[in-house]
Write a structure and sequence with these properties.
Number of helices: 2
Helix content: 10-25%
Order of helices and strands: EHEEEEHEEE
Mean pLDDT: 91
Low-confidence stretches: none
Shape: globular
Distance between the termini: 30 Å
Length: 141
């Protein structure tokens, strides 16, 4: 895929942050996300996309007031959780540890055959990394 191609549709969870620019730096440095775009001025991030090298990613922005007439944003900064599939959880764990991430669960084998670990980012969001790609899906008819 070249740099101008848009990826196939995927699920992109989104979150807001008290300090979005610092969170972006942390997610890139500690976990290995790749910053694709970050729109905004100075400390304010209106929209950012961070790609996960193995597929998908997250979108995030600065916490802000909800526009009049809009539904309130459901997630408060620090209230986000995500499971990120990776073929290399031990390498991601080592990177996170080296970057000073708070490890909330050391690397371990799960009862369903995954190798997982968990960490918290500086905003308090919880990130789970592991090899479990999900259960096989039924064949569409």
């Amino acid at each position: 895929m070249d740099a101008t191609e848009t990826p196939a549709p995927q699920v992109w969870p989104s979150l807001r942050a008290t300090d979005a620019r610092a969170l972006i730096r942390f997610l890139v440095d500690a976990f290995g996300f790749q910053e694709v775009v970050a729109y905004g001025e100075d400390d304010f991030v209106a929209h950012a996309e961070l790609a996960w090298p193995e597929g998908g990613g997250v979108m995030l922005g600065s916490d802000r007031e909800t526009p009049d007439g809009a539904a309130p944003w459901a997630g408060m900064p620090g209230g986000f959780t995500a499971y990120v599939v990776t073929a290399e959880p031990d390498a991601v764990h080592a990177r996170a540890l080296a970057a000073g991430a708070e490890i909330t669960a050391a690397p371990h084998e799960t009862e369903y055959g995954s190798r997982d670990f968990a960490a918290a980012d500086p905003e308090g969001n919880r990130w789970y990394f592991g090899t479990y790609p999900g259960a096989p899906r039924p064949v569409a008819r």
